[in-house]
């Protein structure tokens, strides 16, 4: 059944409110009352769209995973290997800059042991990482990049880009009155370029 414009707007408001509450309070600290209040809806109205906190949380995470995987999917076997991996790093850094709440939501799920996302992590994510790490190691075997472990390279890109969103308070405390993303791209570009370039 097609939703009305009001229903579409309310569902979007609930998702936006839930993203804010979950990313700030974590799953355990979030309540339906807090999400409803953030969305400007009554709790009964919210429950018309979602039967539980868990249902909202799962909807958010499932939608987020596709966004998180897109930059890795875009790794082009026909491209220049170093530039493809640097472009992937920059896309991941851009996601951290543009979607910090989403990054913290995903990190929170992982810290909980991934009760909602484990099937996705051991399914589509694992298959995609396996495919792209094989590509990276093929590039290395062909002498087009330095010898690297494909999976560890992908994990390192995750760690060094998502940290800026997930540990934003710490990063800004260390760097002071400056936007950490302004220098992060240049620093990470130089770091990965040195690691990947054939000597």
Give a quick set of tags describing it:
199 residues; mainly alpha; Arc Repressor Mutant, subunit A; Tetracycline Repressor, domain 2; 10 helices
Summarize the structure.
This protein is 79% helix and 0% strand. With 199 residues, it is mainly α.
Overall structural domain count: 2
- The name of the CATH topology of the largest domain is Tetracycline Repressor, domain 2
| Reported CATH architecture of the largest domain | Orthogonal Bundle
Largest beta-sheet characterization: none
Question: Layout of helices and strands, plus pairs?
Answer:
Elements (H helix, E strand, L loop, with lengths): L4 H25 L2 H8 L3 H7 L3 H21 L7 H18 L1 H12 L6 H24 L8 H17 L1 H8 L4 H17 L3
Task: Give a verbal description of the structure.
This protein has ten helices and no strands. With 199 residues, the chain is an all-alpha fold. It folds into two domains: 51 residues, Homeodomain-like (Arc Repressor Mutant, subunit A), CATH 1.10.10.60; 140 residues, Tetracycline Repressor, domain 2 (Orthogonal Bundle), CATH 1.10.357. Helix 4 packs parallel to helix 7. The longest helix is centred in the N-terminal third of the chain and has 25 residues.
């Amino acid at each position: 059944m097609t939703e009305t414009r009001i229903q579409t707007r309310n569902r979007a408001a609930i998702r936006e409110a839930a993203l804010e509450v979950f990313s700030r309070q974590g799953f355990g600290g979030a309540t339906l009352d807090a999400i409803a209040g953030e969305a400007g809806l009554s709790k009964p109205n919210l429950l018309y769209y979602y039967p539980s906190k868990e249902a909202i949380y799962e909807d958010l995470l499932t939608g987020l995973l596709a966004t998180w995987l897109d930059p890795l999917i875009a790794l082009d076997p026909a491209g220049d290997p170093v530039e493809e991996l640097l472009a992937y790093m920059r896309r991941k850094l851009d996601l951290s800059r543009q979607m910090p709440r989403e990054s913290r939501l995903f990190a929170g799920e992982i810290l909980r042991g991934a009760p909602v996302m484990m099937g996705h992590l051991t399914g589509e994510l694992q298959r995609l990482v396996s495919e792209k790490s094989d590509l990276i190691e093929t590039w290395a075997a062909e002498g087009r990049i330095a010898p690297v472990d494909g999976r560890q390279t992908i994990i390192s890109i995750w760690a060094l880009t998502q940290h800026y969103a997930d540990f934003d308070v710490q990063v800004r405390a260390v760097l002071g009155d400056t936007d950490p993303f302004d220098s992060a791209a240049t620093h990470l570009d130089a770091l990965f370029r040195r690691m990947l370039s054939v000597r």
